[in-house]
Write a structure and sequence with these properties.
328 residues; alpha/beta; Rossmann fold; 2 domains; five-stranded parallel sheet; 11 helices; 14% strand; binds phosphoric acid mono(formamide)ester
């Protein structure tokens, strides 16, 4: 079978051992990850969806919070790069016997982990680990702080669909206060030159967020005609966000994306949602599954972003051809 030509990776000077958040990254570093992810996305179109770039490396998933997309996406990304992968499940671990988070991680490192992908309900938990272990740490979501690979896959989806990010107006709608996705989007979008509007109930969108260079708005219908992209955020009921408005019905009335609201926006509106989505709450099924929605494109792009991040933090960037199919 004739294979498509392999694009070469963008020449990047990547020096970071960890990916803890987009706040820390320069515009050039973010673009380098996106360019690398673009190159890796070609592997998904191959008949044999695997390259030897991380052969011999061990990637551990340490998830202390539930996940569908992020966990499986990192696991699959590591496998596509030929790394050995192992999932750690907190609920059936020796944490219940009193072992500390750091001791647990040190024991996993003693088994040879090169990369630890960490999701934790406490903001800063991955940062703490990065100071106690030698392995590379990737933040897969720390409380309401950051979710850098979600921010990156959102950026990748916007760039692929719109051709650019600079100059676009992007609204993040809903529960901004509790959203790590919002924070990573804010850092990434503003660094790449987008205008960011944060829109939701005043109890979930503090005016102080203007200090991050964003516009704060409380009336979605007034904002929509200016938007190129709307990213609909989930209400974080697990972080008590449900107490911030009178009822789900009222929230949906004022902030839910429905067909009427899509028609208020530009015809080429790009609609994103990080998932999991609550159909009928933050957006209606017809909008979630409609022509403006790129929700499943986000998931596909997430795989390429996570391959890029695993590859870059693993320090194999000088390998002659990371997209090569040959296994020696
Ligand atoms: N978007 C996201 O992080 O989804 P999961 O919680 O399923 O990983």
């Amino acid at each position: 079978m004739k294979l498509p030509p392999s694009p070469t990776l963008t020449a990047v000077r990547w020096t970071r051992k960890h990916l803890l958040g987009l706040e820390d990254l320069s515009k050039e570093e973010i673009v380098a990850i996106l360019d690398t992810a673009d190159s890796f996305s070609e592997i998904s179109r191959r008949d044999r969806k695997k390259v030897p770039a991380l052969t011999g490396k061990i990637v551990f998933n340490l998830f202390f919070e539930n996940s569908t997309r992020t966990r499986t996406s990192f696991s699959l990304a590591a496998k596509r790069l030929s790394a050995d992968t192992q999932d750690f499940t907190a609920s059936v671990s020796s944490l219940s016997k009193g072992e500390t988070f750091i001791d647990t991680a040190k024991n996993i490192e003693a088994m040879g982990a090169d990369v630890m992908v960490v999701r934790h309900p406490t903001p800063g938990a991955p940062h703490l680990l990065s100071r106690h272990v030698e392995a590379s740490i990737i933040n897969a979501g720390d409380g309401s702080h950051e979710h850098p690979t979600q921010g990156l896959l959102d950026l990748m989806t916007i760039r692929k669909k719109k051709g650019t990010i600079a100059g676009l107006t992007v609204a993040l709608v809903g529960d901004i206060s509790h959203s790590r996705v919002a924070r990573s989007n804010i850092w990434g979008l503003t660094k790449l030159g987008a205008k960011v509007i944060l829109c939701g109930p005043p109890t979930l969108v503090p005016r102080s967020l203007e200090g991050l260079g964003c516009e704060v708005a409380y009336h979605l219908d007034e904002v929509l005609p200016r938007c190129d992209v709307v990213n609909v955020l989930r209400i974080q009921f697990e972080r008590a966000a449900g107490g911030s408005f009178p009822s789900i019905a009222e929230y949906s009335h004022f902030y839910g994306m429905n067909q009427r609201r899509v028609e208020l926006a530009r015809p080429d509106l790009l609609l994103l949602a990080p998932g999991p989505i609550n159909r009928g709450v933050e957006l209606t099924p017809e909008v979630a599954d409609g022509p403006n929605s790129a929700i499943l494109d986000q998931v596909a792009n997430g795989l390429a972003v996570r391959m890029a991040v695993l590859y870059l933090v693993s320090g194999r960037k000088d390998a002659p051809s990371p997209l090569s199919e040959s296994f020696s």
